[in-house]
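Q: My labmate handed me this sequence with no annotations at all. I'd like to see what the chain might look like in three dimensions before we decide whether it's worth expressing. Could you predict it?
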Amino acid sequence: MAHITLQAQIPGTNAKHGKVRDIYDLDDKLLIAASDRISAFDVIMASGIPYKGIVLTQISKFWFDFFSEDVESHLITDDVNNFPKPFCDHPDQLAGRGMLVKKTTPLPVECVVRGYLAGSGWKEYKQSQTICGHKLPAGLKQCEKLSEPIFTPATKEELGAHDENIDFDRCVEIVGKETSEYIRDKSIEIFKKAGEYAVTKGIILADTKFEWGVVDDKIILIDEVLTPDSSRFWPADKYAPGRDQESYDKQFVRNYLESINFDKSGEGIVLPDDITQKTSEKYIEAYEQLTGCNFPFRD
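A: Here is what I predict for the chain of 299 residues:
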């Protein structure tokens, strides 16, 4: 099995550790390294997924390039040779999974865009026929395509806490009207563009979350973009409304944890090799199908 990086270990440096990413503060820049850690039900597992961090970084880079004429992003380079010292001396840890980015002030809302009725949106719809203040037609099926993508923001909570879905008025209270309108409109715009592209590759983009940050009085696209961790990608040839869909993500992990009645709290567990391998293959498949390129980082 391929080497798994659960955490970057760069001598002489200190990192802030998120669920997946190790973040190094370099004054006006950040060095972000995506690990192979995996979380499910907001619990970080004790074992990682081979190549996962590299897939997340490379898919994000693909989309940053794809949207380059539509919106500015925080990406400076993912070339380890162009990282500052001591990071450039550790390609064994950072090649493929590291990004040097502009440091921004992140906006404290997650910009969720939904094109299909799934996940927490489906749960809310069944209760109230709404999602985050959007009134929807009666009689929609699970995973049914919406007539137009909708903006359903959420709060950004601390590690271990659940994000809360909010309506647009609450978003305005948090970040202001002008900013809310910009991130809503831009998020929907690039979601539509990505969805139109993805379907040409045999993939349905069901929903995603974008993150935005402010630098030099500009709002730019940050964090990860349209990865299997932040989005629902479904194989188009297997799609059928009215049920759960196959997906390019960590569903193998979730299904396994459900099968053993994992309590969805406390310490993460070591996952069986076949579960980690199948999950790794799904992530790599997503990269290859979206980009049309062979995954170049296998050992």
